[in-house]
Amino acid sequence: MYKYVARRLLLSIPVLFLSSLIIFGLMRVMPGDALTALMGESGNVGPKELEKLRKDLGLDQPYYKQYLIWAWQMVSLNPGYSIFTNEPIEVALKKSIPVTLELAALAMILGLCIAIPVGVLSAIRQDRASDYTGRILAISGLSMPDFWLGTLVITFAAIWFRWMPPLGYASLWEHPWTNLQQFLLPAAVLGFRLSAATMRMTRSTLLEVLREDYVRTAWAKGLGERIIIYKHALKNALIPVITLVGGQFGTLLAGTVIVETIFALPGMGRLTVEAILFRDYPIVQTNVMLVAITLVTLNLLVDLTYAWLDPRIRYQ
Amino acid sequence: MAIATAPGRTFDEHVVVEVRRGRALWTVIKRKPLGMASAALILLLVLTAIFADVLAPYDPLAAQPEIRLAAPSWAHPFGTDDIGRDVFSRVIYGSRISLWVGLLAVGIGTLAGTIIGLVCGYWEGRLDMILQRVMDALMTLPGLILALAIVSVLKPSTTNAMLAIAVVIIPGNSRIVRGAVLSAKQNRFVEAAQAIGCRDLRIIATHILPNVTAPILIIASIWLGNAILIEASLSYLGVGTQPPTPSWGLMLSSTGRAFMEQAPWLAIFPGLAISLAVFGFNLFGDTLRDAWDPKLRNRA
Fold first, then answer.
1. How far from the centroid of its chain's Cα atoms is residue A233's Cα?
2. Minimal Cβ distance to A255: which of B139, B142, B152
């Protein structure tokens, strides 16, 4: 297994190298740069000052040198400074990562709490009213844009209950109650959308597993329905579900951007999008690479979980 | 002689396969109420987009400030927006943008993904390794962020949003096609074609491609819904369709959010239109999969 992990880690190096080249290249070919965006806000600045600023920020150097400097900063875990705010990126990340992680974790928990029971119910009552209801609910969840759901949830909470989530970000450790009020609605919106795909996957894999010989044997032995479904069938049906959920968590780290914007949460998604719009190269590059590294790591962890769920799986 | 008759026979086999696929799809649509519903929704969307000029009661760009933010009524079933434009007419015209972007983005993404998948799966080797690593790298970048970065490079517009969505579609698609090609290559008839000296391109076109069209079409239909959602998201972020062109995502971000408490209909109807369109394509993708994927046919 160690060999397998080492091989996967080695294989991820060229992938991450290519990801870094793609995002670096995209940022450099974007029209305008951070200075143009920055100076657009602060008024007229002479070409000499602009040139000096560009030199100070290293933007006058050839692209390959800029790439090598950035790559070295990433490898030495010192991602540099934001061009736009001059704040160390480390500080910006320390503020935004907990927000996105909390939102993603809450959304995952809420999503799984909906998806697994509904998926199981849908599978064991196949082609009955509850199955159709579950499936329509799932496809509706997949079809509704999160920005629409978010907008509706805020609007109707305000109209019907005269309630709005508290503005400004409150830390989970310092103001847990306010924090929960801020995160519950966005997490519910994201969780509902996530639950759709998970529910569909749970249903279809459970249906497949329920037709296996060992499940028939369990029925023949006279075991109860609950034990057969939850102990024998569901555990094996969960392998593709875990693959999906692992991927969803990675996607969530950057996919929360719109929900973060609607609910005014200062997370990583919002930071990345704002940085793209302001051409703040170091922030975009660092955030995107962090997401890419997380996705690659999550994929590996998901693959390793298979062996725990299904002891027949061995890694070579 | 054998070579001379082979193309004719292969062509006939394609016709039979197409007819069988068409029949299988029709049977599933007839048998499953959700399949019928999806077909009806897509038909409604297509007809709305084609006949938008006839169906829309007002010019979607004509402002009537005297009736700004009017609530839904018989004259304006979905109400009016902040400068008095009829929301119903704008939603009808918005279907054109969504369908246009969805179809073209998925068309381009599927075509490029299929070509890459065919090349990688058929020839394998070093080119396959390099291309697949590039696809892996693209897949590690979050879809919406990648699309946003591409649109920022190309300048915000509907066409560029469409191209960006196509790029997001390519990696996953190429992976699926590659897998299907690797499996189709194991068939005896491919070996036979190679043995009688058929050229690679001919084998790909006449023997491999017909055997991988089902997964390609299934994935494309599922991607149609996603493409509409990404376009709406890009427009919502201000880098997709630009005002005053009526786009569902743009309608939600520009007026829907600003007046959500005062005039909730501005957010409700465009969002409902996006949801129904995506719902139709997702459901249709499921129906196609049920009809064409024998492993899944009995369990959906």
1. 29
2. B142
